[in-house]
Write a structure and sequence with these properties.
The protein is rod-shaped, with a radius of gyration of 29 Å. A five-stranded parallel β-sheet has the order 2-3-4-1-5, with helices on both faces. Helix 3 links the parallel strand 3 and strand 4. 23% of the residues are buried. The chain has nine helices and five strands. With 209 residues, the chain is an alpha/beta fold.
Length: 209
């Protein structure tokens, strides 16, 4: 029988081990260095009739021990003994392989935060899409730091400004480029001085398009 814990979420891992206490106390801990003892444990029995519970800890991080674990997965599954395979750093492929043989898998993987695409805001800003930029600002303003957003906007704005200077078609005049560029620079300076909230300053700039 196989139970598997995958992932690094501390709370989920603690709950998993609390649940697994019901199957019995761990009688053997196996690390990569002890992997040669694993096969014998699939047929081992306790002298006192207790259930044999084996805890494999990160044995799949190293190629040699990983190969042995993979080879013995079918045997461990059919064994009357219990094998707890703990792989905090398992990737998606390892997760799928373990899921195939596990009687129960505890998914303790960290939830990934939704990627913040500040460059969408920058592109809308550069196209002078006031409505689109405002909607995108409302989406990203609390998902990333205002400093990071200001930096991305300034980077994009220097490109717009350079194009206008070169005489390329734009929805901004040279004077507007200078005015908005000045506001972007001052927003960061004033925020560091404690004179203004950077997030508020960026909102004002976006609404001024």
């Amino acid at each position: 029988m196989i139970y598997t814990i995958v992932g690094t979420d501390t709370n989920k891992r603690e709950k998993a081990y609390e649940t697994l206490q019901k199957v019995g106390a761990v009688s053997s801990h196996i690390y990569s260095e002890q992997i040669s003892a694993l096969e014998a444990l699939t047929e081992a029995s306790s002298l006192f009739g207790d259930k044999v519970v084996v805890n494999l800890i990160q044995t799949m991080d190293i190629a040699s021990s990983r190969d042995e674990v993979i080879r013995l997965l079918p045997t461990m599954k059919e064994s009357k003994n219990v094998f707890i395979i703990d792989e905090p750093f398992a990737d998606a492929n390892r997760f799928k392989r373990l899921e195939k043989y596990a009687d129960k898998i505890f998914d303790a993987r960290e939830e990934k935060k939704k990627d913040v695409d500040v460059f969408t805001l920058c592109n809308l800003f550069a196209r002078r899409d006031k409505k689109g930029a405002w909607i995108e600002w409302m989406r990203v303003r609390d998902l990333d730091s205002p400093e990071a957003i200001q930096g991305a906007l300034w980077w994009k704005w220097t490109m717009v400004w350079q194009d206008v200077r070169a005489g390329k078609p734009s929805k901004f005049s040279l004077q507007e480029c200078e005015d908005i560029g000045g506001k972007l620079v001052r927003s960061n300076i004033e925020a560091h001085r404690g004179e203004k909230d950077l997030k508020v300053a960026l909102e004002e700039i976006i609404l001024s398009l």
